Amino acid sequence: MPYQWTRYDLLCLPPSFPYWGMENPCLTFVTPTLLAGDKSLADVVAHKAAHSWSGNLVTKKTWEYFWLNEGLTKFLERKIMTKIHGDENYFDFDAIAGWEALKNNIRTMPVEYTKLIPDLGDGDPDDAFSQVPYEKGFNLLYTLEKLVGADKFARFIKAYFNHFKFATVTSHSFVEFFNSFFEDDVPSTWLHTPGLPETPEFDRTLSAECEGLADAWLSVDDGESVKGILPKHNISNWSTGRKTCFLDALLATCTERKRPMSLATVADMKKLYKMHESQNSEVLFRFCMIAVEAGDESIIPVVEQFITTQERMKFVRPLYRALFRSKMGKDVAVSTFLENKEFYHPIAAKMIAADLKPDEKKKIWEALGEFRKNPVALAGVLALSAAVSVTLIRGKRR
């Protein structure tokens, strides 16, 4: 289906923007953390462009059906990036990274929010925000594509957009349309069952070397390698995706074995790869997580700099949680947040405060001051943001 919105522009917002982006017809807002200097984070732009169909042209009726926006957009994003990379194996390679993010989120989310159709009740949709609608939604769609075949599923997606264009949809709408288009039914367990679905069978052609390097470092960490002999892989020319795949594999194994990397191993990685100096936010974030969990006190200034110069919640919330859990970082997490509370967007400030332990919440909420006591202030900020958006769009149209 052709693009429906005449033109498409991107506007990079200040560092205090708490999300990776926000799609609007004609104009998308993006975070400055995408400016890595090597175009390596273009997948976010592909994602936001895909929202011109799934999200702007056809959108969910309520927040319970958020997966219809984000799961489908994630699916389209990976189709776009697979074409850009010119390698059909890229689709599963990127999906593996998404699966790891989904696993991490489900470990920390209330169980009721791990369903594709959560019961939000009177709760704040921000409290349920996670990778579940993105990656669990994506994996449902990928499962359906495998069920009916890629060509038939592509025709279904086009028909879906054409049928529901400029309208709102529910999960029931999607399921009913799918069942009328095919003889197969959408498995209801995907929509209503909490937690992780069955692990998909991803093609690991592109991830094998990255996971192999992670295994080599874990052997060093476990003392199974000859002392002083480190993996010899030269990863200086690796893409961001390969580096993050390697780091994700390390983080996943540390979580599964319930033991972080040793300080000595982290120190060796710093000397060899210098990831703690990376200008790429995705790489720096993951390495900081590894180092904080290892108890590396020398990483604290790096983390403090990172979480106080940009506000993307994908990065700042996990790092605050990791700092707070650590013996070395609990006081640092609280003091850093309190000293920088005015820098953070009200939504981010609320979510970070909620991530910290109950015994610190009173102190934190007192320091939040106006935004805690006066809901009108928060509404005013959001209204101003909306007004700026409308003004910018109208200006572009002129």
CA-CA gap between termini = 26 Å
Proportion of helical residues: 55-70%
Total count of strands: 5
* Number of H- or I-type helical stretches: 18
* Strand content range: under 5%
What is the C-alpha radius of gyration, as a whole number of Å? 22 Å
Mean pLDDT: 89
Low-confidence stretches: 380-398
The main pleated sheet reads as: 3 strands, mixed
Structural class: mainly alpha
Helix and strand run: EEEHEHHHHEHHHHHHHHHHHHH
Overall spatial form: globular
| Side-by-side strand order of the widest sheet | 1-3-2
Protein architecture, described:
There is one protein chain. With 398 residues, this protein is mainly alpha-helical. Helix content is 59%, strand content 5%. It has helices spanning 43-50, 66-85, 90-108, 132-148, 150-164, 171-181, 188-192, 208-221, 240-257, 263-273, 281-294, 300-309, 313-325, 330-339, 346-355, 358-368, 370-373, 375-397, and strands at residues 9-12, 21-24, 27-30, 58-60, 167-169. Strands 1-3-2 form a three-stranded mixed beta sheet, sandwiched between helices. A two-stranded parallel ribbon has the order 4-5. The model is unreliable at 380-398 (pLDDT under 50).
